[in-house]
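Please decode residue identities from the backbone states below.
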């Protein structure tokens, strides 16, 4: 588990550095869209992991949560 956390932290630092490098040519709208795409993907991955573990929530509740989150962006 600790190894996975370290790998995740390393990946986050790498992505952060790449974004900082691109930030001079990246509009704030583009940066925000990238952020929301990453968060949306993460939420979907977490939902799929829960489903694989048999901890599936109601499909309609999941869709409602995703719509609510997506509208908030």
């Amino acid at each position: 588990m600790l190894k996975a956390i370290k790998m995740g932290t390393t990946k986050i630092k790498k992505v952060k550095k790449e974004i900082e490098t691109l930030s001079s040519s990246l509009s704030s709208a583009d940066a925000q869209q990238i952020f929301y795409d990453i968060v949306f993907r993460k939420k979907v991955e977490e939902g799929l992991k829960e489903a694989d573990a048999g901890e599936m929530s109601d499909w309609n509740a999941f869709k409602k949560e995703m719509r609510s989150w997506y509208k908030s962006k």
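Observation: The helical segments are 2-22, 28-52, 59-72.
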